[in-house]
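Side project, low priority. Logging it here so it doesn't get lost.
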Amino acid sequence: MSREYPTEIAGPYEAPPRSFVDDEGRAIELRRYGDDDFEDVVEMYLAFDPADRAQGIPPTGESDVREWLDSLADGDFVAVVARREGAVVGHAVLVPDRHGDFELAIFVLRAYQQAGIGTELLEALLGAGREAGVERIWLTVERWNAPAIALYRKMGFEASDTDSFELEMAARLAD
């Protein structure tokens, strides 16, 4: 495998549960994903703006969303949800790959973007990942998505593969 991970450990990050007020003054609750969150996460993805989909995810259509979420839960995944007034407005997940590393995916509904929720959600996910024993994380991001790339760099991710169409980034949570 050609992926390189930074030598520096990223963090520290505070694991959920916790709450905060976003940049728009909205109270947001962060917590670890549980089975009781499944239907609310499905609803979030059904409301997801097609323009915000990247690399084919999240899928469209209820059955495809359910199948995708079920497939995420097939392994030792780590996930966090952001809720506002009971509704899921963000979902972030670490999914194990065949090498024992974890791929990161994060989604925030458009109406809640650019308000600090993605940053808080990512910090909570990385904290939960560290608590779960996750050591190495990677992700791919579209090269035009400057806000996401800046956020990932702020969180300790570094470019690990600059030759592909999409930018691959990686972070280390432990030795």
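Brief comment: Helices lie at 38-46, 62-72, 117-131, 146-154.
Revisit when time allows.
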